[in-house]
Structure formats: structure tokens, C-alpha cells
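1st attempt posting a full record on here, be nice pls
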Amino acid sequence: MIDSFSIHIIGLGLMGGSLAMALRGKGQRLTAEDINPAVLHQATASGVIDGIGEAHDADIVVLAVPADIIPDQLPTLDLKPGTLVIDLGSTKTRICNALDDLPEGVLAVGGHPMCGLAENGYANATGKLYQGARFVLCETDRTTSEARTRAEALVQACGAEPLWMERERHDHLTALASHLPHLLSFALMSLAMEEAAQDAALFELAAGGFDGATRLARTDAAMIVGMFGTNADELRAVTESLRDHLDRLEQLLDDLPRLYDELDVIVAARRSYTAQYGERLIT
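the predicted structure (as C-alpha cells):
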């Protein structure tokens, strides 16, 4: 339980704002800070947070800012001994390496909730965002048994499911499961922009397939740069592997029976994935 802990969230965008809404009334005191005073005023006036605060006064500090900002922000925090620091960054190796260097006595766990929306910002925050989501937790040199217990309690309080994983393994797997889909979405939208400049009817013909494939290209560029920039090596490797698969499918366009066999296996795998893990709502 987190009832006895004061919680401070740094950054009230989509992820930080949604976390605050999910934790509303569950901690001893919930405070936040953000570069946008209007967001803080709105969150305070609506009762989402108890007030504006500072990291030094909290038992749990959550960093909900772009991934590339977190490593540089960590050394600037004024933290009391025993405070748990956890981040919501979409990559973990570089961030956890920085968490390793926090002062002794400060607790730290790397975090990455596997949920989100295409649109960012507090205006799109929802208290249901974390419900049922897997929330990756990574040990650091500052992770103790108390840190693990407190981190898991925080995750469960917002409705998510804790999943412990090594930082390097997380970045390797999310390069394919999360970062590459974003890269593809932006690349496809970029191609469509070029074609639409020559023939605007392209977008009149676009429907569900195009909308679904380019949904992630609506995501704020600052967040995407932070994601790509802190996991570039893994993203490059998986992008190269994807090129091999695209080349194979392109070659099979001249051999339709073999193309059918190839696609049939892929269709079965995708349907099995849905049957085992469910189909998440696309928004």
C-alpha cells in the first residue's frame, strides 16, 4: 500500500498526468511540478493533485519527462535519504545507468509503463490509462528490497501489473515491440506526404489501414526524439532486420504461391498473438 507515502510527480503530461489521476486519493499527499504553470493550476483546481511541491519533501519521486532529459535531470534533484526515485522513460539502459549514480541512501528503480496514447499532454490524460498495463521495472544499484516493495505498490495502485526485467533486455525487446512501430509510422506518413503533394486524392482514399499504420505519427516529436535517441543502437539493428523481411516479401511478389504460404504463416502467428494477449484498443 502507498497510503503512508507522499508522492511527487515531475512532469504532468500524458503519462504523469494520467498517473496522478490514477493515484488520486491513494497517497498521503500527492504533489507535482511542471514547466507549464497552467497545467499545475488545472490539476490543483480539479483536485487531481494536492498542490505544487518539491522532490525533497516526497517519499516517492516519479520522473515523467522525455527519456533523453531524465539522465541529466537526476543529478539536479534534491532528495532526502530513503526516497524512492522511479522514472517512466521508454528506454532503460541509459536512465538506469544514471539512477545507479544517485547518492547512497536514495532508492531507485527504473520504470516503463507499457501504455500510452498517440496524443500527448495533460489535456489527454486519463486515470484509466494504466489499467491492466504491464509496467516494466528494472533494478539499479540503488534497488533494495524496500525499493522493490514500494515500486510494486505504486504500480499496483495505478492499476498496472509489475514486470521485472533487466535494463538491456528491455531496450532490446522494446526496440521491436515499441520503437520500430513508431519509426515505421513516421516513415509511412512521410512517404504519404510526398505522394499527396503530387496527388491530394491519396488522403481521400485512405481508410482504416492507413489510419492504423500511421497513428503513432501523431505523437509529440520531443517524446519520439527522446525515445529514439536513447536506444539508437538497438533501433538501428532491428530496422536492418526489418529491411531483410521487407526484401523477402518483395521478392515473393513474383511467386504468388510462395507468397501465400509465407503470409499464411504470418496470419496464423498474428491471430495466435491476439488469442493469447488480447487486442488493445487503438486510440
